[in-house]
Amino acid sequence: MAEHYFEISADELKDDVIEMLKTIYDPEIPINIYELGLIYDINIDENMKVDINMTLTAPGCPVAQSFPGEIEAKVASVPNVNEVKVELVWDPPWTKDQMSEAAQLQLGMF
Q1: What is the value of pTM for the model shown?
Q2: Is the pLDDT at 34 greater than 60, yes or no?
Q3: Which one, 3, 30, 65, 93, has least CB within 10 Å?
């Protein structure tokens, strides 16, 4: 028998997805991928399918092959998420300006 969750809006689900993304850390920088500015876009359709466009700090990043799958698995564990697709994009290239103020302060960039 399928599990039934309470009715949730796409906006509420997006908040839950963001909270999960904040638990995933870049392997080279001790900051979560959301605060680092690596998440460019999160779209959730009416079927609760989550599409995430993200980048990495550098195209040659050693986790480029495995990291999207790890993120998909973690986001798929969020209640009410039916499907997840993470796509790596390289345009625009990531810069430290995309980091949140909190992340910049944590790394002493001010």
Answers
A1: 0.89
A2: yes
A3: 3
